[in-house]
Specification:
155 residues; 30% strand; 7 strands; 7-stranded mixed β-sheet; alpha+beta
Amino acid sequence: MKNLLTVREAAEGDIDAIFRLLEIYADRGVVLRRSKEDIRFYLGNFVVAEIDGTVRGCAAVRDFGNDLLEVRSLVVEPGFQGKGVGRAMVEAIIAGLKIRRSSWRLFTLTYQVEFFRALGFRTVNRELFPEKIWSDCAKCPKHSCCDETAMLIEY
């Protein structure tokens, strides 16, 4: 079947593709830059979206403990946006959480408010996530002038 979209857990052979995709958007200031070593270390947190066997998107989930998780490093290759690739990855993440956990809170900091709203997320105050602010936001070049929106879905 042509143009088959598959979302799966990332594997060692996906590191270069994940790195390449993240670099596109890190250069644009959309996601934080991640080294190949960092991707390798956290590879178990990633899912990838393949179209016809080629990785066209990736997303990661960070577990902060106490049933608080974050969708991060969510990117889709230019030319494949608007085709349901990002949605499929987030839906797969949510489906996995529903299977593995009885309750959870999944948040994101994003520029794509309508995308996440369509998936059931709601806008919240970023101060609800001090773990995120302490760990990642302090390293971000936009720390003092963050223009992303915090969004949350709970189960």
